[in-house]
């Protein structure tokens, strides 16, 4: 009887020990509560009011430079004004270098051009409560008028819209400093949409990188590529008219819309 009682007591104690051990193990594997780390985010209005920067631009038209003015107009929004000078060309252009003389030639090119846009825009900051102030993420859009200046790429002495190289009337390519007196001004509109980051926790320095799409529109069009080309005979030779000149046919039309992806770096000061 006593042995049976001792056996029951032993089983009871063993079961109690197992339950106690399970509770201890369960308490040990429970993960602690996740601590919320406060983010160092602030509004733009708390840090600065105005900014001024120099922009360096790279796109399919070449390089450009410009100045940019910023003004904080809402807790996380800025108004911007930028003035720039950029190259303007047809995206199909290809540059070839003469092996012997080093001269660079662009086949079918008719005019060089530069653009001078004035853009008014807005920059809105996003994810201020999720991304630290060292990397301030913005989405922006801007638009405004543009003036472009175009001038002849080559000396079109007979004004026929085609560069003659293989006839007695050889027409030389102008260098970048010649042909300006025969240039024309064109008026149109310009715009861009982009995303970017203001980098750095020092709110007195402006360091920005932007990625976007940039475009121009000229209602009257610009003749960047040659408007005419020679008509060929059945045997592949240039057709000559009764007056001894080349017989020409239409080639490239005037271009109204110019668009390109673009990267912009801005450096300056905030206050």
Explain this structure.
The chain has 271 residues and is mainly beta. The model has no long low-confidence stretch (mean pLDDT 86). The longest helix has 28 residues. It is elongated. The N and C termini lie far apart (94 Å). The protein is 12% helix and 48% strand. The protein has two helices and twelve strands. Strands 1-2-3-6-7-8-9-12 form an eight-stranded antiparallel barrel. It has a two-stranded antiparallel sheet with strand order 4-5. A two-stranded antiparallel ribbon has the order 10-11.
Which parts are unreliable, with pLDDT below 50 for 5 consecutive residues or more?
none
How is the main sheet built?
8 strands, antiparallel, barrel
Strand order of the largest sheet: 1-2-3-6-7-8-9-12
Q: How much helix, percentage-wise, in residues? A: 10-25%
What is Rg? 35 Å
Inertia-based shape: elongated
How many β-strands, per DSSP?
A: 12
What is the overall pLDDT average? Answer: 86
Give the end-to-end Cα distance, rounded to a whole number of Å: 94 Å
> What's the total helix number?
2
| Beta fraction | over 45%
Look at the helices and sheets and give the structural class: mainly beta
User: Secondary-structure element order, as H and E?
Assistant: HHEEEEEEEEEEEE
């Amino acid at each position: 009887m006593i042995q049976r009682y001792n056996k029951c007591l032993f089983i009871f104690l063993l079961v109690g020990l197992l339950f106690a051990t399970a509770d201890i193990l369960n308490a040990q594997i429970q993960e602690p509560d996740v601590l919320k780390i406060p983010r160092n985010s602030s509004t733009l209005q708390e840090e600065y009011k105005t900014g001024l920067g120099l922009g360096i631009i790279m796109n399919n038209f070449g390089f450009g430079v410009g100045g940019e003015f910023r003004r904080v107009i809402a807790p996380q929004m800025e108004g911007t004004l930028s003035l720039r000078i950029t190259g303007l060309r047809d995206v199909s252009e290809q540059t070839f270098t003469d092996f012997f003389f080093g001269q660079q030639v662009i086949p079918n090119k008719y005019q060089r051009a530069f653009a001078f846009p004035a853009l008014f825009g807005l920059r809105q900051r996003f994810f201020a409560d999720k991304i630290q102030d060292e990397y301030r993420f913005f989405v922006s859009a801007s638009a405004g008028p543009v003036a472009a200046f175009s001038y002849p790429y080559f000396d079109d002495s007979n004004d026929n819209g085609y560069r003659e190289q293989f006839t007695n009337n050889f027409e030389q390519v102008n260098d970048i400093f010649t042909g300006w007196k025969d240039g024309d001004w064109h008026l149109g509109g310009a715009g861009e949409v982009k995303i970017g980051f203001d980098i750095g926790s020092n709110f007195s320095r402006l360091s920005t990188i932007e990625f976007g799409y940039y475009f121009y529109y000229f209602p009257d069009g610009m003749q960047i590529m040659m408007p005419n080309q020679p008509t060929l005979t059945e045997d592949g030779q240039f057709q000559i008219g009764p007056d001894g000149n080349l017989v020409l046919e239409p080639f490239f039309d005037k271009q109204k819309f110019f668009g390109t992806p673009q990267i912009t770096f801005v450096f300056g000061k905030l206050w």
